[in-house]
Amino acid sequence: MIENPNEVVTKALVRSVKVPGLDKPVALITLDNGFDHKKPNSFGPAGLTSLDEAITAATAADPAFIAITGKPYIFCVGADITGMPLLSSHEQAAELGELGHRVFARLKNSTIPTFAFVNGAALGGGLEVALHCHYRTVSTGAAALGLPEVAIGLVPGWGGSQLLPNLIGIAGAAQVILQNPLTQKVLRPKQAKEMGVADALFPAADFLEDSLAWAAGVVKGDVTVERPEIDREMWDGVLWFAKNQLDEKLHGAVPSANKALELLALAKDASFEDGTAAETEALAGLIMGDEARASLYAFDLVQRRAKRPVGVPDASLARKVTKVGIVGAGLMASQLALLFLRRLQVPVVLTDLDQARVDKGVGYVTEQIDKLVAKRRLDEGTAAKLRGLISGSVDRSVFADADFVIEAVFENLELKKQIWAEFEKIVKPETILATNTSSLSLTEMAADLEHPERVVGFHFFNPVAVLPLLEIIKGEKTDDATLATAFAVGKELKKSSVLVKDAPAFVVNRVLTRFTSEVFKAIDAGTPLDVVNEAFDPLGLPMRPIALLQLVGPAVAYHVGETLHTAFPDRYVDSPNLKKIVDAGLPLLVDDEINVEVVKLLDAGDAPLTADEVRVKALTALAEEIRIMLDEGVVAQAQDIDLCMILGAGYPFHLGGITPYLDRSGIAEQVTGKRFLPDGAANVRRA
């Protein structure tokens, strides 16, 4: 077995516990890696070996039952993926799968009753070890339960694909193994109980005591656990429907999803031994594949780099923010107000041109607070506090004591310059002036100010409450105190912040607009809209180009395109067809189909491209643009561009963002003469 020198070993600690009503003690195994909940338990080779030894010791004690639980707040979040890049062969990957299967099966095959007391988060191999136990209890405080492997290019590889469908049925298993990972969802404790993943649900406060008492009742025969008979007649139909859904959304670009389907089909009639052998083979093949390696690279970006952004000044320079001002009261401004209000819980004041607009903005915030209370995502006490902190006024003097002011008005440079000129006379000299501009120059915006060093870009992505990316833009004169405050606020807002140089359209919009520019070059050349729209299906992008354009809004896309065409006329086109679409104001899609009225608008050229040509030209353009951005120092490294595309544009993990795909396809070297990532950074093969 390959060793992982970086493994944080989760030890399985055994103790004997006396439970009232039982003649013999209970063997309680606690998983604990020695750290708090911020570093969750996981299973690497050494951790699995420790669990194996603990099961041996527990069994030898001949207890009334064996139970496994976790350290506070965490049960186990699965395999230690830090060791996966070290696996260099199919055989090594298979060996890891076989080790997990062998150890976990001891709980399933035990003649002594086995219980999992899922006291906290249980994901991947953590949930799989629980599924091997004869019975399961779950705490109401468990943050998340699930089998998310498909989302990172893998499959449940330690029994989950075979045990879960035979426990809760194929429909529920397909939801947990396929649908939830691909939509970034997990199970909550109540759902787990309702679906049958858990046999009992207990409050967090007395979870262990309640679980021990309940388990004692099961062992004595006082408690009966009933499980429904599994319907096998609908099995094939559910998987047929799931496959059609996957083909429609992913177009075969995610091998792990298709492999998971095969394993779920096998679980219908295969023996457990044959099913787990197939799991091992599937897992080993996927671990060594490009998509899984790119997914693990993307996962590492989101879990690590996003939490430690590069280039951030010393946090001690950050100023305290006790009041926030928001210039504008439209939808974006109102969304920002709600976010700042919920996360910072300080006074937030909106302003706009007239009282009606201000009232509408404040009304939106209070309405959303009421909805959160109705959904039980906010308690009434906190809601009352937040309602008292939100206000609005047309009198801009209410911003005089604000520490942080952000504008979210129309994308017009002169308008924004005018706003900051007016507010600079009102606010304190040290007040941070942030702009939510999506493409305009901060340096130009701050050029006429007395204190341009306090202007910073704070570019959110819509919907503000959902998308985690925050591009923090440094102007030529932005100082370290301003930047440090911006990153501190971003962290309080629970956003993943990336430092970006003041350059046209920054990162996400610049990359997406270059992509859109190439799409419209093809359309202007006469390529049919449906050909262009389907050209990128082999990549498995979250949206086809036309759907993406409709989401962004043709007018917004055209405006950003104009900005970039002005800056880089040789690379960004000013498409007459996009202008026609904007002027017409027609929806691009009707019932998810391309609007025929839009097709009639277009001036067709006489040099149409094939789908393959459209895709290659667009990817070539992206490789060129990303190399230019890196050479310009827009961000520190290619990893930051990938992180921005994943968190801000929804680019999938199986591509690793964008640069791993450009590297492994050979396009990066063909276009720029070199790869974006150092060898091994995403563990992708050369073309």
UniProtKB/TrEMBL annotation:
Entry keyword set: Fatty acid metabolism, Lipid degradation, Lipid metabolism, Lyase, Multifunctional enzyme, NAD, Oxidoreductase
Single GO biological process annotation from the record: fatty acid beta-oxidation
Entry annotated with the keyword Lipid metabolism: yes
Coiled coil, from the record: none
A Pfam family assignment: 3HCDH_N
Recorded superkingdom: Bacteria
Pathway assignment: Lipid metabolism; butanoate metabolism; Lipid metabolism; fatty acid beta-oxidation
Keyword Lyase carried by entry: yes
GO molecular function: enoyl-CoA hydratase activity; long-chain (3S)-3-hydroxyacyl-CoA dehydrogenase (NAD+) activity; NAD+ binding
Domain 3-hydroxyacyl-CoA dehydrogenase C-terminal per the UniProt entry, residue ranges: 506-585
CDD domains: crotonase-like
Protein family: In the central section; belongs to the 3-hydroxyacyl-CoA dehydrogenase family. Belongs to the 3-hydroxyacyl-CoA dehydrogenase family.
Name of the protein described by the UniProt record: 3-hydroxyacyl-CoA dehydrogenase
